[in-house]
Amino acid sequence: MLAKTQQPGTDWLSLADEIAAKIAEKAAEHDANDSFVGEAYALLKADGFFKALVPEEFGGGGAAVTDMCRSIRRLGAACGSTALAFAMHSHLVAAAAWRWRNQGAPTEGLLKRVAGEDLVLVSSGGSDWLPSGGVAVKAEGGFRVTARKPFSSGSPAGDLLVTSAVYQDPEEEPTVLHFAVPLKADGVKMLDTWKVLGMRGTGSNDIELNEVFVPDAAVSGRRPQSKWHMLFHIISMIAFPLIYSAYVGVAEGARAKALAAARRKPEDRHLPYLVGEMENAFAEAEMAWERMIALAETGTPGPETTSRTMTCRTLVGRAAIRTVEQAMEVAGGGAFYRTMELERAFRDVQGARFHPLQEKPQLDFTGRVALGWDIDV
Questions:
Q1: Does residue 338 surpass a pLDDT of 80?
Q2: pTM here?
């Protein structure tokens, strides 16, 4: 049974709130068991979230990036793993829709499949980034790809792995090929590797590709290895507001729990200062996140927009982590107990450190853009 397609004007935020209320209790169980948030994915699919960002013309929900960012934030306050895994699917769809609308890119086929078949997309982009990884060897009618792709979020429920590999073109420089492969294709294997500090329910397992055949027609893009390409400026502009919405949600959930605990305490002359520090940190995260969303909706992809988006990514990540740290200070010793769920938020929010561009590469990139220097070094 296919999920329903929501009509234009759907209140995605209200639907996200309903789902958040249902998944909150299961979040701790998935964290404790290293198990995938399967029932949360089922709820999201039933309400049409996986095709929400597909244009209406192709059978999707026609939702804006803003709609999904705010929805992911709500999910993140209840279950960070659900929010982050869903964001990884969402950014692939959002980028494909943006390219179709603004560049006339041939992404119509993928978008129609996502809507018509209720496909769940799995990204390996964060672990590949500009260099990519794996080897593509020319074969008759296509390529044979061998690779191992870590951080493939949502893989237990995924249908298509959207990934890349490096082809050593004998006539040109090393070339990154972009393509999608079914997760049930011959030679594709999901490895049970996701035993980690936080975001344990995302199912971000390694995916192994062993001489998987990729036909020429399935190669959706080619670019020089390790160099900035317009595709990555688009991804930077579109993807990171969605991804970091999950971390703003985690911080918001921790803030709410800390305030609830603090209001039960007797008056303490130091407590308002601790709460004030938490509020400042959360305000910083929220303001930088709002700026990211505005850039996604109205920006023009290129080095300047990427620099601004990645600066916001650093600010959101820092401030979200600091919000949760301050939430634990506000709550006091009770924060050390799992039952308060602040320790899970503390572990989950650490993931904000590791998405590209990480802070030091971001500082270098932003500095180079400001100086007018070459960004491909």
A1: yes
A2: 0.96
